[in-house]
Amino acid sequence: MSTLGITKLTCEYRSEPLGLGTERPRFSWQLTSGRMHVLQSAYHLQVAGEEGDFAGDHLIWDTGVVDSDQSVLVEYAGAALQSGQRCSWRVKVWDQQGQESEWSDTSYFEMGLLRTSDWSADWITPEPGMIDPQAEEEFLLRKAFHVSKDVRKARIYATSLGFYELELNGERVGDWAFTPGWTSYRHRLQVQAYDVTDLIRSRADNAVGAALANGWYKGNLAWENHRNLYGDQRALLLQLHLEYADGSTEIIGSDPSWKASTGPVRMSEIYHGETYDARLEAGGWSQPGFDDADWTGMVKLDHAKDILVMQENEPVRVIQDLKPVTVLRTPEGDTVLDMGQNMVGCMHMRLNLPAGTAITLKHAEVLDSRGNFYTGNLRKAKQSVTYICKGGGEETYEPHFSFQGFRYVKVEGWPDAEPLNPDRFTGRVMHTDMPQTGRFECSHELLNQLQHNIEWGQRGNFLDIPTDCPQRDERLGWTGDAQVFVRTAAFNFGVAPFFSKWLHDLKADQREDGGVPHVIPQVLDDNACSSAAWGDAAVICPWTIYLCYGDKRILEEQYDSMKAWVDHIRAQGDNEYLWNTGFHFGDWLALDAKEGSYVGATPRDLIATCFYAYSTSLFVKTAEVLGRTEDAAAYRQLYEKVAEAFLIEFVTPGGRLAAHTQTAMILPLMFGLVEGEVQRRMAATLAEYVKEQNHHLTTGFVGTPYLCHVLTENGYHDLAVKLAMQEDYPSWLYSVKQGATTIWEHWDGIKPDGSFWSDDMNSYNHYAFGAIGDWLYRAVAGLDLNEAEGPGYKRIRLRPRTDSALSYAKAALDSMYGTIRSEWSLTDVDGDGDSPLASYEFEIPPNTTAEAELPGASIATTQVNGQPADQASGVLSAKEDDAGTLKLELGSGIYRVTVQQPSPALSGA
Ligand code: BGC
């Protein structure tokens, strides 16, 4: 495969997306080649009509040959794209030696409805006198219609107030769950587009049906049993666009001629579960021949259409199935299925029981110390699903409009006469369909389980928005949690569309004064906003997405929001360079908190001022990236003042800190607020503190994510590894040793004596402390990027750090350019245990370059792919620095590197 090829064509991060809402879609592709060191020097991209015919007069946009190395997120700049327009596209590239590829395969993208004026349909809701808008049952809506011609193409565009599920001629439309997703509903409501060409019947009768439930729009939301937070009526807005073979078109839209009834879902709530009475099923309700004579009428609802936006992130759907690993009989006599994994989604059941039998499933995360089913930590969330059988044969069911967070499922109502066969139950794991992009593994089984737990924490909590927890009566988009985890998240899964959507909602919900609500979408009190490290999500999240994907648009889109946040901080209190006023969560859940408090001991104004400086520094970089030089200069000055004010207020000239907590040292070190001798002293003190605690942390949400990074970066990597491998409480591996399969909210969610942290706030699936994942990838395996020279991994930084506590570590990331790998292993050649030899394997995708740093290696002792280090193919340069580190400049390719002398980091260890 020495020839240059092209693969993985995506448009707006997705393969052949349908229903795009952006008028300037961006194209990405990856290069393939069997040669080493391949760079793109030019590309030629063509967009044509849906026929995929690129002959001259069919072209919609033709870039010609563009001298550019850009292969990621190339923005469309042709004539305005129209609503519903379907286009084909292809690209060819040249490498730096002038070799030309073939044209890529043809790919497609399709626009959604771009303008409010595209909507001729009405918002409709069942006639209130006939069906109580507050009824708990699902509403079923239907419309029968005749298609008199041959259909070439059919699309449905739909959205709702509340959740909807669609059927066309008796078949489910799409497999997406919880549509239309959760956004800042007053400002933005998503529309989904579906290709229903295969479901529509030409020259025949047809029918479309929609089921509506409360969902985030009007169901219980936020912990105090709040309801109707956005409105108190469910409604549907739908257009079916038919394109006939003769070129004519027709739209069937929602209007008052539709009919309504209630359905077998008797109750459905996100927190509480669902009740389904199969005896009430109206067979064929979404089929054309169905008799809807006793269904009621519908009325128009006056609701905005200028808030409609096309779906921005990947949908939520069932991603995988898990089978129960055992059936338990608890001491209290309950029958409980153990799924073996704390998961989010729902249970599917296959039943064959008499009519009227009610099977109830209750969901819990843990069993108590005696092995009994425990639901105390769910607070008011019932997580209870009941199915009432219709009888007469095999029946299958899974909830439609509710999800549960659980590992254990208590089965109630199972007939005594019938043995419970666990094979009748399947766990349906649901989350946003983000592609898995990262893998980390090492020689330590417990760390591998930690990585597993971090990934599952992300699966469970990336359900359309980044939630804090998926089980109790909360499940909200806490900004602080999202901010601490975003970098880890962007390793494990592709999260650019996911965060872009959520950030658009952050911007929409941001207050006039620039304040940022604690949760996005905002559903708490107006004044629940603007805590340090929570509101900073407004700046940290877009910046991180830019870094990890090279996505400048998210910076452009969020620019005003980022700036407003920094300005908001500046306007607080009486000293514009310190942030010493307002409400702050502080180092939430830190172990140095006073008895009975959730707030750690680190002074809140210290934390707040550190984040003020950090957000300002990221905003300066953002302004620089976007070429906004005036802002860059003005905010650089602001940053310098804040940094100076911080030192005056919190650090003595000799480098002592006013506060004596781990987090108080972690933040200034991480955010670069101290340098030189002060930095050295602070890092040494932090290391002392950790050692004094017998290698334990005391940090909470704010300090924990950075703790190991700061130690590694300041020369204490061995200590960071010790901390990460600590198994006693408190530590990351403590929960792993306790059998956790996800990350816990509290370091001691289950205490060493088996008792629980109190019921009031004790989630077993809370990703925040999983933010250490970022350090596993970047510091242990050494897979990182060079921020200044090439965000989005255009310029890769490999800094593998061998450590005698591990014999190997490896990380891989499917970046926008292709797979990057960084792996190391230690081999104890002479068996004496103290002088192992290091070897490395790196994979660098085409159109990127990498700098690899190998401590303790030299040109003379290092072989690359069996050649001397400075002569191997793909190695662009090899240099040794004064500190005894070999620095290799690598082009794309796969490199096996062996170092023929013991690593100095180890020989002394
Ligand atoms: C949530 C958190 C959140 C915190 C803020 C909790 O209830 O679960 O993760 O950040 O409140 O106080």
TrEMBL record:
Top EC class for this record: hydrolase
Domain Alpha-L-rhamnosidase concanavalin-like, chain residue ranges per copy: 329-431
Record domain Alpha-L-rhamnosidase C-terminal: where: 789-858
Gene3D superfamilies hit by this protein: 1.50.10.10, Galactose-binding domain-like (2.60.120.260), Immunoglobulins (2.60.40.10), Maltose phosphorylase, domain 3 (2.60.420.10)
TM spans (from-to): none
Entry annotated with the keyword Hydrolase: yes
Entry-linked SUPFAM superfamilies: Six-hairpin glycosidases
Domain Bacterial alpha-L-rhamnosidase N-terminal residues, every copy: 149-319
Keywords: Hydrolase
InterPro entries (alphabetical): 6-hairpin_glycosidase_sf, 6hp_glycosidase-like_sf, Alpha_rhamnosid, Bac_rhamnosid6H, Bac_rhamnosid_C, Bac_rhamnosid_N, Ig-like_fold, Rhamnosid_concanavalin
Keyword Transmembrane helix included in the entry's annotation: no
Enzymatic reactions: Hydrolysis of terminal non-reducing alpha-L-rhamnose residues in alpha-L-rhamnosides
Residue ranges that the Swiss-Prot or TrEMBL entry lists as coiled coil: none
E.C. number(s) listed in UniProt: 3.2.1.40
Protein origin, superkingdom: Bacteria
Domain Alpha-L-rhamnosidase six-hairpin glycosidase: 435-780
Official protein name in the record: alpha-L-rhamnosidase
